[in-house]
């Protein structure tokens, strides 16, 4: 066992960004903190979001850590874990990815191993088989991911001037449920529609040319099906655009809705909150920026924003 106490800070992420279903992920400066130390039994303390999460070996963090022990034939040593969560769970902001990433990195820390990204993803995929929240949580930044025999990815600079306003409604939507409504087969026309827009999004962000962003986040693979699970979805999008948002899309599997803005974040955020309220759903908004660091060890024990 390595050093007996460590804290990891892991960022939230928004994924898909409209047309880039299971492909694009963007790390955000909203964080969960995981402090752990070897202990004689599993013990959890959860502060902030996710108080309802299991506080035993059924917690996703423990399941991932134990999977790493199994895969690398190590005797499982229980941990005392303190989670300070700022990311709401089951809202499409990659909370589960933070638990998976922190469990793997803390496992590496305590077992004094450095895994390759491929080995890390091999463990992570047992729990979340798409990389678009996992890679931003590991690495930070804007990621374009492609899964084949191995995971290919490119990390791009995300324009500093773009703010990400996320409107978080006050209800949970599990990724499982939000994937169950999707079609397993899509038409060639819809596939082409998404390829065109996903490509346009990458080039627009690389060139800092935002005129096509609104078109670039349109999608026919997941949002049209998922919006039935999100009251007033179209109205929330419309209201953000009417206040000057450049692009508005479902964050991950939802129900959070995200906007890119150059200015007027409060107006955009309030308009989205109001549109949810019209459907009887309370909501809050946060104006966030890209996180460029990904998961990092920190000396600040389980605190901060
Ligand atoms: N911070 C966390 N710590 C431990 N377990 C978590 C945490 N967040 C989520 N989980 C577990 O992961 C399961 C799956 O979460 P789910 O993927 O539905 O939501 P999410 O990760 O919050 O959002 P996203 O849609 O972005 O993945 C939850 O039921 C919960 O048990
Ligand atoms: N790309 C995934 C993200 C959720 O974790 C989805 O949309 O289902």
Verbal overview:
The protein is an alpha+beta fold and 305 residues long. It folds into 2 domains: 6-156 and 291-298, Ribosomal Protein S5, domain 2 (2-Layer Sandwich); 163-288, GHMP kinase, C-terminal domain (Alpha-Beta Plaits, 2-Layer Sandwich). It is built from 10 helices and 11 strands. It has helices at 60-71, 95-110, 117-125, 131-139, 175-180, 188-207, 213-216, 223-226, 233-242, 265-278; strands at residues 6-15, 24-38, 43-48, 79-85, 142-147, 151-156, 163-169, 247-250, 257-261, 283-288, 296-298. Helix 9 packs antiparallel against helix 10 (265-278). The longest helix is centred in the middle third of the chain and has 20 residues, at 188-207. L-homoserine is lined by residues 15-16, 21-22, 130, 132-133, 175, 178-179, 222, 252-253.
Short description:
The chain is α+β, with helices and mostly antiparallel strands. It has helices spanning 60-71, 95-110, 117-125, 131-139, 175-180, 188-207, 213-216, 223-226, 233-242, 265-278; strands spanning 6-15, 24-38, 43-48, 79-85, 142-147, 151-156, 163-169, 247-250, 257-261, 283-288, 296-298.
Strand content: 15-25%
CATH class assignment of the largest domain: Alpha Beta
Average pLDDT works out at 96
Structural class: alpha+beta
Order of helices and strands: EEEHEHHHEEEHHHHHEEHEE
Ligands in the model, by name, code or SMILES, are: adenosine-5'-triphosphate, L-homoserine
Q: Termini distance?
A: 30 Å
Q: Give the proportion of residues in helices.
A: 25-40%
Note poorly predicted spans: none
CATH architecture of the largest domain: 2-Layer Sandwich
Number of strands: 11
